[in-house]
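Researcher: Next entry in the queue.
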Amino acid sequence: MKRILVNSIENDLFHSAWELYLSAFPRNERRELEVQEKIFSNKDYFFEVIVIDEQFIGFLAWWEFEDLRYIEHFATLDQYRGKGYGRKILKQFISENTKQTILEVELPNSEIDKRRIGFYERLNFKLNLYKYEQMPYRINGEKVELLIMSCPKTIDEVTLRQFESEFRAKCYNPYFKDLSI
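Model: Structure for this entry, 181 residues:
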């Protein structure tokens, strides 16, 4: 299993990942293709496609910050779920650095949301119960209430608010200059 860095929407592997992205995430939690194309130019953004024996199985999109790594999107194809691939991918990712890793999860309002939280908890992620809203991923989009999980330990609210501010400046404002929120 290997992760291949993709930095263009012209890459064939990106097209497979984008199809999965569109099916795996609700509209209000994903960006439009034009914005995705612009984000590839950010040196702190990484869009990695996961392959086994040259076969696409999923992708991992993440951002590098000074004190942490933020997993923005992660998904595997349906036929690879429940087989340990997601666990292996994330364990490898976490082991590659000493920084705190954070990600967002939906509120535990359904069985699938609860199972997803449990999946991350089994990987040593901790649920942080501070109020958190994901910025809109599209023009005229809405903020989405989510929870932050962090590994290997919980983060304090000051760290979360600092992340929100840094995320807005690095990952959001440059691509949504005309969006008033």
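Model: The radius of gyration is 16 Å.
Researcher: Noted, moving on.
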